[in-house]
Amino acid sequence: MADSSSSRPPLCERISHKSYFLRAVDLTILGLLFSLLLYRIQRVNENETVWVVALLCESCFLFIWLLITCIKWSPAEYKPHLHRLDKRLHDFPSVDMFVTTADPVREPPILVVNTVLSLLAVNYPANKLACYVSDDGCSPLTYFSLKEASKFAKIWVPFCKKYNTEYEKLCRKVEDATGDSHWLDSDDDFEAFSNTKPTDHSTIVKLVCENKEGVGDEKEVPHFVYISREKRENYHHHYKAGAMNFLVRVSGLMTNAPYMLNVDCDMYVNEADVVRQAMCVFLQKPMNPNHCAFVQFPQDFYDSNADEFIILQSYLGRGIAGIQGPIFTGSGCFHTRKVMYGLSIDDLDDSGSLSSVATKRMLAEGSLAREFGSSKEIVKSVVEALQGKSNPQQTITNSIEIAKEVGNCHYEYQTSWGKTIGWLYDSMADDVNTSIGIHSRGWTSSYISPDPPAFLGCMPPMGPVAMVQWQRWGTGMLEVFFNKQSPLMGLFHQKMRFRQRLAYISISMWGLRSIPELFYCLLPAYCLLHNSALFPKGLCLGIIVTLLGMHSLYTLWEFMRVGFSVQSWYVSQSIWRIKATSCWLFSILDITLKLLGISKVVLIVTQKTIPESRSGSGDEPPQHIDHGLSPSSGKFEIDGSLYFLPGTFIVLVNLAAIAGYWVGLQSWSCKHGGGGSGLAEACICVLVVIIFYPFLMGLFKKGKYGIPLSTLSKAVFLTALFVVFSVRK
């Protein structure tokens, strides 16, 4: 293994990105928000109810910005030195690679194939790798595609991406199989898929390809295993988290690698050295003695729907990484197996090995059976993992039948799987939930952002699919905020650092921002119609103008610094407001119904997109594909779902207020008294309409980019009620 001598240069180094100028800007904005809040408080008795509502909204914005400032205070990341690793390492540690898929329609098999092929071709000894694919859809088509991919990999992997023609044949074969199932009856290997349903079938474990040579030759292909856990009707399977825990158990039985990589089926490897980069952190003993639980790589994308997401990673992601380490984001992450088995920092001695006290407590046979289940083979693999023993080179075929047993629906019953072991349950945001559990036990994590990006994936196009995904994320975060893993729990006595906990609080309560943002989008319109002053001339108006100007220039600079355009910045600001006032509003409804016991949260698999054309080399998706629904195209697909009702309502209300202001509705209201609103409120109404530009355009367009009549009629009715309520004294 690695030479741990502290006299040698480190395998990686921590790079700090802190900026005193940016800190000053953050504090200035914080000061302006506080000044505005103080101004409101001092004059709250002199104004109407709308003043109190504005005070509450601005209090929320102040709290949010305070959290953001704390998060961004000391950004950092790690830079690996691969040349030092190669000189120092004599025997690479093993890595198990996990890919999850759940629906062959929404997640096309060719997408899974692309991801698997990229994993099999990483620059790492093949005998130290094993790739496991979990198919929660129990699709024979997915299995067929993976079998064909394994045949192709034996040709493609040794020569990487030279065989473009062969790859196109593979694509055509998979696509042809989608509409023709004759291959299902021509091979006995598919018998396990007969009479199965995605929600009702027994466990399936298939060894697609086995690396029998085991010497690390360049012509070798890693182990490749297909699994589909047992599914039964009316049984909760915990979605992706449940699939990941089955992957952990199966891989523990077969290869039991000390490190595990998990990627989504649409997130392929873009940097062949990504595994070795992660090892630079894990094997850096002098700087971080066995305290790094996982290494998170940022999620980058080959389409143009993710500008805002990339910005969040660049600034908030690095900011959190500078505290106790980045948050696990569900894909592109390397985990240590022993940490996923519930190990705490306190369970280690000074050398990084399991302490004698922890050994007696954790490795007792009865204790392990209660924690990990009744399988003796699982218990044995857990003991080996916790003791840091290298996995023996053995024929993994012998473990197939045992692997099927640990995929049984009832295997996890009365165990600690999903509670304190593995991926944690009780939230659709299982990644954040699991991350909190790891950091609460005192572990750190590391963030590596290489150039080129380590992983590339796709984001759903702007429209209904994206709205579903945003609502799912918002609901999952709120589940974390209100469950047993809530960052509010153990605020001071757990091993998580205080600022790290603030970061989790900020992220998990994102959905709650919907309420103040929705109200603030409507307040200027209400004041125009009601003739109330929201931004009176003088100090208050000066603070508001300065705040808007500084925040706009600050966020614009953040986008342009990363290489995005002004248009990208504007569209991202628009999408953020739409997301906050629409998707997260329904996230609040979801979590409310769940907490009241009225309904349960259901995970909906979103449609994944496939590039329509390929680059000249034919071996990887082209960069920044425009699907016609991206921010750069200015198009936003709209359907009749309720997701688009709040945005349409906001636009109509502000248009009504602007129209009323100019045609003299305010003059009528003045006859009945009022504080007197004016140009400032009208300008903010115009700004709101500009921000919700996709809905404004939707009023005049037809087809999939136009607002359906059903949505428009509901929004008009709500707008009429709002106007009547606003002008009534």
Automatic annotation (TrEMBL):
Gene3D superfamilies: Spore Coat Polysaccharide Biosynthesis Protein SpsA, Chain A. GO terms for cellular component: endomembrane system; membrane. InterPro entries: Cellulose_synth, Nucleotide-diphossugar_trans. Mn(2+) binds at K240, D264. The keyword Transmembrane applies. Its main location: membrane. Coiled coil: none annotated. GO terms for molecular function: cellulose synthase (UDP-forming) activity. GO terms for biological process: cell wall organization; cellulose biosynthetic process. The chain crosses the membrane at residues 20-39, 51-71, 502-526, 538-557, 642-663, 675-695, 707-727. It is found in: Endomembrane system. This is Glycosyltransferase 2-like domain-containing protein.
